[in-house]
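Hi W.,

Here's what went into the run:
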Amino acid sequence: MGSESVDPSGENDEEVVTVRSLSVGYKGRPVWKDANFSVKRGEFVAVIGPNGAGKTTLFRLLLGLQAPSSGIIRVFNSKPHRGNPKIGYVPQRHTIDNDTNIECMELVRLSYSGNKWGFSLSSGTERKAAADALNAVDASDLSHKSLGSLSGGELQRIFLAEALIGNPEMLLLDEPLSNLDVRRAKELVELIGRVTKSRNVTTFLVAHDINPMIRFLDKIVYIANGRVAMGTPGEILTSKRLTSLYGTHVEVLRDSMGHILIHSLYGDEERHEGKNYVVH
Amino acid sequence: MLSTDLLLALPEILRYPFMQHAFETGTIVAIVAGIIGYLVVLRKSSFAAHALSHIGFAGAAGAVLAGVNPIFGLLLFTTTSGAGIAVLGKNASQRDVEIGTVLAFVMGLGVLFISLYTGYATEAYSILFGDILGISSSGVILTLIVSIIILAIAAVVYRPILFASLDGNVAEAKGMRVLWLGLAFMLLLAASISIAVQVVGVLLIFALMVTPAAISMRLTKKPAYAILLSVAIALAATWAGLIISFYQPYPVSFLITTIIFALYIAVRFAYRGRQ
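Here's what came out:
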């Protein structure tokens, strides 16, 4: 584990992601366009927006799995490229097969050595790296459990350990909170927030519900309606900002506990007797 | 003990060249099938294995018609169609209908080839159900060569294929060529099936290529152990089948498939509720 203290040397001002006039599309159909934002080292960023808005597309751009249609994107001061060892990735996935009887430790070890040709008989460094990663996500007790037997929250911790192998400087987590109940979601976000700060990594997390993570977040990327907005939660989650982003009237309501409810009248999502509530 | 009696009978059995060839081929095939079979189970590619072996029937029948060793026809047809399935990519698992349609057509070709090869229904029978007692010494050498190639390639690509099978999206993000690994896997599978057909035939290929690995995956959570165990199960069943067949008038394929089935049932019951 890294040090708990915030780096005083000013290194944290370093921009690790820079996006200028960036547009992206699939087969000529634009997904979103003209995005401008930057993210600094050590920031915890939520990526929010309706289904199909292009949140996963942003990850594919950062991973170098997809090229933008126009504009500039820089990751760690260079063009995104496949297999960047500085990035740990947890893809969106709903379940793992119940009959995958392979222990967690083996998956994490494969994440360390699975991209190497040939075979080696039980390497000590590999085992240590896997044990450290599992320890970092409080999952040492799961090392020898079968992947197929884990609960949703436990599985997400294992995926996080898998992503932490090789000490990446950036984490891309695609919907790790879906399928988790509120309490498990909160626990996982807390863990992710802790890992982000203690290792000084930059974390992007795609989610539907902003509420479990609001107090850990540094920034929000809001993708909707073919547009991308970025800012602090206070800047982005306002009625004015979201109304202009969606192009339709949106209201942001806050309850006494600080929970946020995004409420859009005649929104472009499903209509419900003339009203549409989108809870974020 | 029955098992020690059986082992003591080995020197006696191995005095016969046809039994020697059967043991040699059976041993080589069991090792290859146990190793590649683990990937088949992990990737849920058992339908592809099934399809490849059926497609191999036409290749084998065509080779018989052309007067060459059936294994060449098997290799040609299985590797070509294996490459085709791999190129369909990760959606291949949802392409049962397409694969099944091609499969039926190619099997039909096999029927044509067999009928053109006037008379010998025994050839069709041995392709369909295996003919391990009829393998020549050159057949053993051919099997050995193909197996060495399979194992040499597997030694290099096995771990990346294992990782890509378990976690394809992460593997892709790490810059691994998942499609190429899928192709490598299908070619390894095609070649393994081609040699395994000699032992159990195209219809019973599941017994060697899938079930031993399925049993071992239930018994251990570590891939390395599971692969070893899968080889051990395939070996034990093949050897036991051959030894029993020496004394009893039952077909070897029947004995091997029955032993493996019995093990499968036993393990399923023993491990029920342990998951």
